[in-house]
Amino acid sequence: QLVESGGGLVQPGGSLRLSCVASGRTLDNYATAWFRQAPGKAREGVACTNKGGGMTNYADSVKGRFTITRDRSTVYLQMDNLKPEDTAVYYCAADRSSCYVPNFGSWGRGTQVTVSS
Question: Would you state the pLDDT for residue 68?
Answer without folding.
Answer: 97
